[in-house]
Amino acid sequence: MSTDIATTKDTVTVEGSSEPRDEAADWRGIASEDKEITEAGNLVLAGRSRRLLLDLVRPYRKLAALALVLIVVDNAAMVSAPLFVAHGLDAGISEGRKGNWSPLTWTVGGYLGAVLLGILTTFLFLRVSGRLSQSVLFDLRVRSFTHVQRLSVAFHEKYTSGKVVARLTGDIETLQELLESALNQALSAILSVLTIAVLLIYLDLTLAAIVLIGFVPLVLVTRWAQRRQRAGYRRTRGAIAKVVVQFVESMGGMRAVQTFRREQRNESVLAYEDSEFQEATTTAMRGMGDYAGLTRLLGNLTTVIIIVVGAWQVIEGNLAVGVLAAYLLYLNEFYGPLDELAQVFNSYQSAAAALEKISGVLEEEPSVVEPVDPIPLTKASGAILLDKVSFGYGPDRQVLPEFTLDIPAGQVVALVGATGAGKSTLAKLLTRFYDPSDGAVSLDGTDLRRVSDTDLRRNVVMVTQESYLFSGSVADNIRLGRPDAADEEVFAAARAVGLYDFVQALPEGFDTDVRKRGGRLSAGQRQLVAFARVFLADPAVIVLDEATSSLDIPGERLVQRALETVLRDRTAVIIAHRLSTVAIADRVLVLESGRIVEDGAPADLIAGTGRFASLHAAWRDSLV
Prior knowledge:
Number of helices: 19
Distance between the termini: 9 Å
Helix content: 55-70%
Strand content: 5-15%
Number of strands: 10
CATH architecture of the largest domain: Up-down Bundle
Number of domains: 2
CATH class of the largest domain: Mainly Alpha
């Protein structure tokens, strides 16, 4: 029977950090998640989103230029049709009465030609824009996923996996809707409005003045709706992220959910978050409805005035009937795109809010940065030195005061201490998941900040309490540290840690799928797979973060035997909550409040009267 030195793992999160932020940081990355955005903030976020979109489109600018040309040609074909109608009503009919049908024939032919050209350009545009949008979205997904993987552990400790999933799925899908359909409508509508405005002025200045006067309140309504919709859709993106977070956390922790009968509580939380999303979406849609209704009202009022004034001019002989007919057709084409723009505006505001969130993640920088000019470190011997190191998760959360520790190559060191003593923090510094606030952590005399990430991960490996297995075969999971390893090397690693016979007994041997998170294997077997990974990767330094604390006695014994093989001739730092793990160590460090209060060989400390001797006595008494 084993006695736990501490009942829980000492982890320190960075949520709720009181670190001061500069004003510019409020509009970078995740800092803008749930803030009330000022007008200045809106400009910053909008500019950031535009820069990201332009950067994504830049590699495909020739394709984008072709799409723009097709839109221009399509628009030209569309706006030319009413001119053929006007010519047919005036010159075509009047000449036809004289027996000359040529003008009417050419008019009909021209109209049909314009229609066919519009059909062809629309078809080609959809093909080109579809290719363009999918290329941009592909690049965005890859860039976002690559960037998130590159970000430091500090980011992932405060930015939940559910939010990351929301950014990489829902937000990108929203952008896809804009690029695939709304962008076509927007470009067509804008070109139509501009070209038709010119034609309206050309056809009749009086009627054009009426249209342009009516356009003023339309611009004001659009500006009002833009501000209102931007805030609404930003709220929807934040709300749906919270819904996704609840889904991801509930599904990921289903065993705990069912064990502690948390289903109803989860349903209540989800219902609340979903109702917030529903309310935000409803408000945004209501705003879109208000905008569409107002634009249609303004358009219809303008059309009525044009009909009255135009009819009066025809009666007075100041305007031809064909010109009035063309004017009304153009007016319909003028306000029709504005209706489309209302729909596009809805998609745009939603996509803009999504793009703000994505661009925020992409602007996050790793807190642990790659060296510009790294020092090569091929195969380290494993000597570790923490020289006057201090570290804190914030100004008021100092975990390690000035700390110096020298670990010779090949030595196995056990870290012992109560929760919050700084053991896990020390492990994160050794593996460079964090950089120290002061001082330096070095491997073979080289500061870890001067070592490339590739060299560092090749030489320093961490094994945690819950070894994560990916869906796939046992062999693939063992190859995680060396994807190019041959089958014979994988089998040798499994034999070394005592895993080979068990795996061979599985239905498909080393090709057996371990299923989600290694659910097909026991905790001890998953840990043995993790040790086989380490053995195959052959690092110089191994950091074990409570690698046996969750195992039963038989499983712990299996892992202990595997540990002896894996740690042979390697430097190891073991965070130990069980004294049975300490037995394999050459040296024990007892930590309290980030300081070493005892340091020595296990036997020497047991023979003394200090804290470790008391812990060992309690463990020995528990075996009786």
